[in-house]
Amino acid sequence: MTLHLVSKSPFSSSALRDCLQSFAEGDALLLIEDGVYALRHDALQTLQNSAVYCLEADAAARGQRELAAIVSGIKMIDDAGWVKLCTQHNPIVSWFR
Amino acid sequence: MTLHLVSKSPFSSSALRDCLQSFAEGDALLLIEDGVYALRHDALQTLQNSAVYCLEADAAARGQRELAAIVSGIKMIDDAGWVKLCTQHNPIVSWFR
Amino acid sequence: MPRSAGHFTIWPAMKFSLAVYSAPHSTQSAASALRFAKALLSEGHEIYRIFFYCDGIQNGNSIAAPPQDEADLTGEWQDLQRQYNLDLVICIAAAQRRGVLSQREAERQEKLSANLAEGFELAGLGQLTDAVANSERLVTFGG
Amino acid sequence: MPRSAGHFTIWPAMKFSLAVYSAPHSTQSAASALRFAKALLSEGHEIYRIFFYCDGIQNGNSIAAPPQDEADLTGEWQDLQRQYNLDLVICIAAAQRRGVLSQREAERQEKLSANLAEGFELAGLGQLTDAVANSERLVTFGG
Amino acid sequence: MGNKTLALCRTAPYGSALAREGLEAVLASAAMEQEVDLLFIGDGIFQLLGNQSPEEIQQKSQRRNLLALPMFGLEQFYVCASSLAERGVKPKLIEIPGVEIKTIEQPGALIASYQCVLSF
Amino acid sequence: MGNKTLALCRTAPYGSALAREGLEAVLASAAMEQEVDLLFIGDGIFQLLGNQSPEEIQQKSQRRNLLALPMFGLEQFYVCASSLAERGVKPKLIEIPGVEIKTIEQPGALIASYQCVLSF
User: Fold this and answer.
1) Which of A73, C4, C109, E42 is 20 to 30 A from A97, comparing alpha carbons?
2) How many independent structural domains does chain D possess?
3) Mind listing the pLDDT tens digit for each residue in B31-41?
4) How far apart are CA D49 and CA E65, in angstroms?
């Protein structure tokens, strides 16, 4: 199934919303760059039973690591974990605007 | 009063929404570039009693000139009209993301 | 002082500066800035300075070679500069980061080539502050 | 074939290509692409090609001179290219529009200087199609 | 290998170069006889509208690139139904000569059926 | 002339260079003793958060630029209250040594009181 990469803030871009409209059952979502601010956004709640990941370095850079740790259902991963997700899913779709 | 320039689509960017949150009575709004798609968005309805302008060339480029003509309360202007608006208002605030 | 704009006279003329944050051929906003600058001048207003910042510094990249049927913004800025003796200033720090260098900067940075277009000038951010201080209107083009 | 990644062996290794649409020093995404490329290689995967398109072509601008305490992405791509013999391809049409030229292109376009960084190669969009056809995974970095 | 490819077209024309450069990449794929489909979604559906007059902003028509696609065997475009509805664009207004427009309700399922997705 | 200036800081740090380059422009103004105020609004409020570790993504701290501002006489930041609320950031979490944080409810009125607004 598809791996979706979202790299923009859900407060200023439609990237996350557009991604969720194109989300199929079994898909996975990885938040990178400003996409990690999705941790603070309601939209993620529609994905409670799905695989949602967050790139730890990007969360840490933005002071969101502690928050990420307490948002339930979000798995923090490092770069090697990102690579692994990409081997486990296909296609890989980037939502960068 | 302030002239606000919005240049991004309200369907993919928070530019228009953010602008409207910072809109004061007596301000004017000019839609340029992809901002002209605001003609198709509900958000503009909150501005019924305000001065809302649309750059005709940008609307025409995108096939929105006919629509602009029938959306009530929107004034179509050319580049000279844009210049005039800038002389009549200050400050001029650009919402481009 | 009243200005002549073709057939008629406009009062009052105003002093504008523009801040341009976007590269040509990426978004429309550099092209919008050029159109607005032309409209200002043809309406008889004065342009105190055009300050290119962030990705906008690419407007002064002399080796861009867009296809014949696409706009050549660098060339159009240069034409306008010659015609109106415009002050086209490129932020030197933003340009160094992104690879637009004058001959002198290229030597200083030990780079093999320079690509700053004639008619543009590299200077510090103080020129933006100065433009703000000395203009009646500042219009920003970004995104 | 299993690949060695430092101390341990990973199976199965995969063939990746990356598409990079963003310039260094404008958004984070070119830096993310570089980090992801390094992670791929250290996990033992193969990179078939990295294709630079849209503003991404600025990654191959040899005269960018970022301050010492900021990342030098062009230099880092070059290091990685040398170490792994990577295929770093810059879309020639996108680069012409935006002012990144090889010596040969500069002469053909009658431009006074060239700025394509060593280790990068100019080629057509067919190289993106070819990368898609010959890779098991394509990851896009844009925005 | 091959790898059936979907071009996800989600940007409006003219405001940025991405819509144009995306179509150029699709044309290149089609010219090389790679299997590529298009899905217009989000603001990408604005690329399909008629009456575009980009000469008013000194740009080339992007619709012309769309019209060239059938010559390369691309005779069917997928269009996201909810993107049209959200923007108040009636499906019957979308017309590209030589192209069959297929509106879809579940873009996620379509996307997942491809080996490669290029986003523009 | 002078021209009282407002820097409208509406972008998150690190994801794009705009937040950083905006602060550099503000520093330049302050160093030249021009009157400039800052309003953090929208995603710009994320610039103010503590615990930023940008070294994890090989970037320099942008908070360090903020911390330099009081040295140039910038001792008060305006922050949009509804932008904080929308993002779930409690006002008391925002702390910049040497800076008084003034949350405002009506950004439009504040903006209109300036002769010049720089958006970043």
Assistant:
1) A73
2) 1
3) 999 999 999 99
4) 27
Does an H or E element contain E61, and which? Answer: none
| D4 located within any domain | no
Q: Which amino acid is at D142?
A: G
Let me know: does A15 contact E97? Beta carbons within 8 Å.
no
Domain total in chain A: 1
- Express each pLDDT in E20-74 by its tens digit: 999 999 999 999 999 999 999 999 999 999 999 999 999 999 999 999 999 999 9
What is E5-119's CATH superfamily? Answer: DsrEFH-like (3.40.1260.10)
pTM recorded for the entire structure: 0.96
Spatial distance between the Cα atoms of C72 and D119, rounded to a whole number of angstroms: 29
Residue A56, domain CATH: 3.40.1260.10
Name all chains with 3 or more CB-CB pairs below 8 Å to chain A.
B, D, E, F
Report domain extents, chain F: 5-119
A18: containing domain: 3-95
Amino acid present at E20: R
Per the CB < 8 A criterion, the answer to whether B75 and B54 are in contact is yes
Q: Would the CB atoms of B90 and F10 count as touching at under 8 Å?
A: no
E115 vs A1, A21, A91: nearest CB: A91
Strand-pairing partners, residue E80, are E104
Whether C54 is catalytic:
no
Chain F positions touching B18 (Cβ under 8 A) are 10, 41-42
Name the pairing type of β-strands D3-5 and D8-10: antiparallel
The ipTM (two decimal places) reads: 0.96
CA dihedral (F17, F23, F24, F25) positive or negative: positive
